[in-house]
Write a structure and sequence with these properties.
Layout lengths: L1 E7 L5 H19 L2 E6 L4 H7 L5 H9 L2 E4 L16 H12 L3 E7 L12 H4 L3 E7 L11 E5 L2 E5 L6 H16 L4 E6 L5 H14 L6 E6 H10 L6 E4 L1 H15 L8 E6 L5 E5 L18 H13 L4 H17 L15 H11 L1
Parallel strand pairs: 1-2, 1-3, 3-12, 5-10, 8-9, 8-10
Antiparallel strand pairs: 4-5, 4-11, 6-7, 11-12
Length: 360
């Protein structure tokens, strides 16, 4: 198979973890006989430094002409007080919109080898295995009007949460299709007791659920969901929610996995003419500039994102399963980075990547 992949290393530790992820991807393609073409582009703070834009036109062109994009984290402290259009995160929002990736899938799994790495008691997290399906191109991050304004001597900030029926329908269908491949349960998260936006969300999800009579649906308010993720995470299979709620809840899931460095993600859109499903793949963690360049970042979230790419964009289930099994074997060996409480001296980023390749 031909795999045409764009790599956007991003900022901070992005280049280090994506480097190991690409290493694993190259090994998989060599072992299974696939032809891999890798292009590299700029996004985020590094793109601002080199081009003045967090999402350069050349990156947009590359993203449109490849089948899947593997991305590192974006963001640097030096841009914290920059205007919104000059912040690295603007590039992330831009590429999501440009690719039309409307569903962000964030698996949260408690590996047996990492139970002691979670700050929660083992009996609470053991057996946790869910996917948070977050709507990605609507909601308060994209709604207008937005901005900071001066009105009559007072400063006012405005953000608008907005959703259309069609936006809710398409992400809901993806959640229900995913549920059919798992435990056949969808939990829809909203704030319908106070938000009209959530009232439409719940109404549409209920309508879509009728198309999937074999999948159970329940509803939960977002504040209760945040609590239940900690108290009873095993109750969840597919968690479906809008953009901002999903952003917050999926980072809470890092507590269950033992480290935010473990969490991969897949942002999915429609299919290319080649048949590949448009996908943007990235670890959930941030750019961690305080440890950048020190070869100590955990690459397993990025490597897990490669497994997701193989599965969702290219339909290579066997290869994806091999990567996931290799990650689990490396975790069981204890040869891991410092964030995962290794049994001996912490492994480096490169050593973990090398261990995953060897396990495959």
């Amino acid at each position: 198979m031909d795999l045409n992949v764009l790599v956007l290393p991003g900022d901070g530790i992005g280049a280090e973890v994506t480097g190991q992820a690409v290493r694993v991807l190259r090994h998989v393609c060599e072992k299974w006989g696939h032809r891999l073409k890798v292009s590299e582009g700029l996004l985020g703070g590094v793109a601002i430094h080199r081009t003045g834009s967090p999402f350069p036109e050349e990156t947009a062109r590359l993203a449109a002409s490849t089948d899947a994009t593997l991305m590192g984290a974006v963001g640097l402290p030096e841009f914290d007080n920059a205007p919104p259009e000059k912040r690295p995160e603007k590039g992330l929002l831009g590429i999501r919109k440009a690719l039309g990736v409307y569903a962000n899938l964030r698996p949260v799994r408690a590996y047996a080898a990492l139970l002691d790495s979670s700050p929660l008691k083992n009996h609470l997290v053991e057996g946790t295995d869910m996917i948070i399906v977050r709507e990605l191109t609507g909601g308060i991050y994209y709604g207008t009007p937005r901005g900071i304004f001066e009105e009559g001597g007072e400063t006012r900030a405005v953000n608008t949460m907005t959703y259309t029926r069609s936006e809710i329908e398409r992400v809901s269908r993806m959640a229900f299709h995913l549920a059919r491949t798992r435990r056949k349960k969808v939990t829809s998260v909203d704030k319908s007791n106070v938000l009209e936006n959530s009232q439409l969300w719940r109404r549409v999800v209920v309508e879509i659920a009728r198309e999937f009579p074999d999948v159970a649906l329940d509803h939960i308010l977002v504040d209760n969901c945040a609590m239940q993720l900690i108290l009873n995470p095993r109750r969840f299979d597919i968690v479906l929610t809008e953009n901002m709620f999903g952003d917050i809840l999926s980072d809470e899931g890092a507590v269950l996995a033992g480290s935010i460095g473990m969490l991969p993600s897949a942002s999915i859109g429609d299919r290319r003419p080649s048949g590949a499903q448009v996908g943007l793949y990235e670890p959930v963690h941030g750019s961690a500039p305080d440890i950048a360049g020190q070869n100590k970042a955990n690459p397993l979230g990025a490597i897990g994102s490669v497994a997701a790419m193989l599965s969702y964009s290219f339909g290579l289930r066997e290869e994806a399963a091999a990567v996931e099994a290799a990650i689990e074997r490396v975790l069981s060996s204890g040869n891991v980075t410092a964030d995962l409480r290794p049994t001996g001296a912490p492994a480096t980023t490169e050593q973990v990547g090398e261990a995953v390749v060897a396990a495959i």
